[in-house]
Amino acid sequence: MDAEEFRRRGKEMIDYVADYLEKDIRKYPPLAKVEPGYLKKLIPEEAPGEPESYDDLMKDVSNVIMPGAASPACTELEVIMMDWLAKMLKLPDKFISGGKGGGVIQGTASEATFVALLAARNKMLAFLKENHKTGEDKELIGKLVAYCSDQAHSSVERACLLGAVRCHQVVSDDVDEMRGEALEAAMKEDKENGLIPFFVVATLGTTPCCSYDQLLEIGPVCQAEEIWLHIDAAYAGSAFICPEFRPYLDGIEFADSFNFNPHKWLLVNFDCSAMWFKDSGHVVNAFNVDPLYLRHEHEGKVPDYRHWHIPLGRRFRSLKLWFVMRLYGIKGLQQHIRKHVSLAKQFEEMLKSDARFVITHKVTLGLVCFRLKDKSNDINAELLKRINADGRIHMVPSNSKGVYFLRFALCSSRTELPDIEFAWSVITELATNLLDENKNYE
Amino acid sequence: MDAEEFRRRGKEMIDYVADYLEKDIRKYPPLAKVEPGYLKKLIPEEAPGEPESYDDLMKDVSNVIMPGAASPACTELEVIMMDWLAKMLKLPDKFISGGKGGGVIQGTASEATFVALLAARNKMLAFLKENHKTGEDKELIGKLVAYCSDQAHSSVERACLLGAVRCHQVVSDDVDEMRGEALEAAMKEDKENGLIPFFVVATLGTTPCCSYDQLLEIGPVCQAEEIWLHIDAAYAGSAFICPEFRPYLDGIEFADSFNFNPHKWLLVNFDCSAMWFKDSGHVVNAFNVDPLYLRHEHEGKVPDYRHWHIPLGRRFRSLKLWFVMRLYGIKGLQQHIRKHVSLAKQFEEMLKSDARFVITHKVTLGLVCFRLKDKSNDINAELLKRINADGRIHMVPSNSKGVYFLRFALCSSRTELPDIEFAWSVITELATNLLDENKNYE
C-alpha cells in the first residue's frame, strides 16, 4: 500500500469508525448473537498465497467480524490467525488448534518466555507431586533449574529471576550455538547436586549475532529427560515462512512451546508476539483461578485466552495479522524477507571488499556482525561510539567470548540499497579517520 | 469531540502519518538529537483545568514530541503524564517523579498487582538476607504470605500463584470491606506458623460490589510490620479526581504502590493501567539483569522503564493520556465521572421505588448491586439468566457471603438517562414475568 492508498483507506476507516459511533452502535445487541465457533465457518483455513484487495477485507470486517463484536470474534479470529501463521511456518500439527495445542498473541518475546517458564514450572511441580517427591511445591521450586545458551537474550535470565528458579547458562560453541552435549553435561552436573532440570530455552537467531542453537541435538536431550523445551525465534522466526530458511526450524517437533515476533520482521505493528503450545493444558493449569464473575457458559468450547498469559484484559491484535496476511499474501511477505536478506548480503560483500574489516559471524538473515580486523576491542568500541555520535546512522554493539563487535541490523520496511550504501560510506569514512589517528599507537 | 470533528481530525491525522512516511521520515536523524530531560522544560507541570484546542495539541506533537522521536520522548512523556495524573489524584509527593518515586503505564491491573508482588518479594528477601535468616532465597519464598480481602479480584490470587507465594484471603466485614483487625489477626496466625507476611493488597472499589478496604486501619498495620502495601483501585481510581470522592483514597500515604485503570473510566482506550511506586528501586532490583546491548549512557538520568514491568518492549501509551487530559481538561473528566455517578443514583432511585427489589450494597460510584427481595439465589440467578438471554441489555452477577446479586454497571461514555430507563424497563418486565411464574412455588 503506497502513501496515496494509505491516505484514501485511512480516511475511509475514520468514516467507518465515525459511522459506527454515530449511526450504528445502537443497532447492535450488547452481546453478539452468534454461537461460539461461528467464525471458523466464515474464514479460509489458510492465509492467501497472493495479495487480496482491501475492499474484500473491509467487506469481511463488516460481514464477519462486526456481528461477532468483541466477543467471541476477538478470540476466534486469534485462534484462526495463529493457525494461518502456524501453517505458513509449517509447524507440526500439534501446534494447530482443534486438539490440545494452539497459538496465542503475547505482547513481547520476554512475556512468552516467562509464560512458558511458568507453564513448565507448573507441569514439573505436578509431576513431582504425583511421584511423591518430598517437600512442598514452594520448596521444590528452589531446586528447579532452567537452561539457556550464554548467547540467549537477557529476558530468559529475567524470567528465571521472576519465576524464582535457577538459571544455568550453557556455554555455547565456537560459533555461539548451544549444543546437545554441553546441555546434557550441564544437566548432569546439576542433578548430581540435587537439583531438578525442568525447562530449556533454545534460541533461533540470537540477539548478539543471530546464531542458532542446535535443535536436533537439544530436542532429544529434552525429550529423554521429559523437560519442557521452549524455542525463542523472536527475530528469525519471520524468515521461516520462506522454504529456504525453514531448515533452521528443523527439530521444532521436540518443542513444547514456540515463539516469534511478527512485530519484528513481518510488517505487523508492535506489539504482536506469536506463541504456540503443544498442550495448552499446562499453561491453563498454571494460571487458572476461577471466580464467579469470570465464568461463562461456553467454557471449553473456545480457548479461554486469559489463562494463556499474564494480563486478563485483551486487545484485538489478531486484526493486524489478518490485514497484513491478506494484503500481502504469503508471497508478498516472503518477498519482504528476501529483500532484507539480499540487502544484508550486499552489505556483507561491501565488508568483504575492504580488508580492514572482518565479518565475525555467518550472515544468515538481516544482521551483519563485523569488526576492525586485528584491532583491539577498545578501538572497535571507539568506532561504534563515533558512528553513533556522528548521528547519520545508528548501531548497537555486542560482545561474545571477549570479542567486541558491531551489529549492522536491517529493520525498516523502507530500507533500500542506497541506504546500505550510505551506511557503508559513513562507516568507512569514520573507520578511516579512526585508523589514521591510531596508526602510531597500536 | 463529536462525530463531525472526529471525522475531520481523524483524516488530518491520516495525512500527518502519510506525510511523515512519504516526505519527512528521512529528514529525521535515526536517533533523536535531544538531551535526556529535554521534555520537562517544554510541557506544563500539571494537567490543564479547562479543555485545550486540538490544534494546540497537534502543534505540540510536531514541535515537542517529534524532535524527541520514540526515545527519549516515549519515556519522558510517560514520566510527565504520570505526574499529571498523580497530581489530579492528589497522591502524596513521594509518588511524583524527581526522587525515588514515580509512575509507569502497565497494561492491566493484573500486571500491576503482579509487578508489585514481585517488587515486594524482592524487597523482603533482601531484608531477610541482610538479617541473616537461614535458608536460601528460593527456600524463603516458600514461607512468604500475601494478603488480600476475600472480595479482592481473582488477579491477586493469580499473582500469588505465579509468584510462588502463599495467598491469605482475609474475611471481609459485613459490608464486604477488609478491616485492620482482621488483617492483623491473619498475620499473627501465619507468623505463629513460621510464615513471613510480606505483601498486602487493599482494594478500593472491589469488583463484586465496589466496597472499599479500610486503608486507615490497614495502612498502620502494614507500616508497623514493614510490609509492602499495594492499593488496587482499578475501577474506582478514576473517580478520585473529584474532590467529593477523594476521601476514599485517604490512607494512600501508607502505600508502597498504587494502581488504577484510566482505560476503565477515564476515557482512555484500552490498555492503560496507571501504577505508581513510592520507591522504584525495589522493582528495578527485582527485574534488572544487565547485558551489554541494553546498556546506554543515560542510565540513571531517566527511569529505565524496562525494569518497571514484565515486557521489555514498550508502546507510546502516554500519548493517549496526553490527548485525553488536554482535550477534556480536569473539569471535563470530572464531569464525565459525575455524570455516570448521577446516572447510577437515578437507577438506584428506580430500584428503591419498586418494593420487589433490594439494593445489596451502598451505591458510591457507577455500580448498583441489587436482587429480588426475599427471593432465593436460584430465582435471582434465573432473573439474570433471562436478562442476558433476552439480549436487550447485558449484566454480570456476583455473590458475597452466600448471597447472589445482580450488578448494574455503567461503563460506556455514551450512556444517557434514556438508556437507564430502558434497562430498568427490561429488568422490571422480566422480573414481573418471573415472579408471576414462580408465585406458587416459593
TrEMBL record, chains A, B:
SUPFAM superfamilies per the UniProt record, alphabetical: PLP-dependent transferases (SSF53383)
Q: Name one GO cellular component term.
A: cytoplasm
UniProt keywords (A-Z) are:
Catecholamine biosynthesis, Decarboxylase, Lyase, Pyridoxal phosphate
Q: List N6-(pyridoxal phosphate)lysine occurrences by residue.
A: 264
Nucleus is among the record's keywords: no
- Name any one GO molecular function: pyridoxal phosphate binding
EC number(s) on record?
A: 4.1.1.28
Q: Which family does it belong to?
A: Belongs to the group II decarboxylase family.
Name of this chain's protein:
Aromatic-L-amino-acid decarboxylase
Q: Which organism is it from?
A: Paralvinella palmiformis
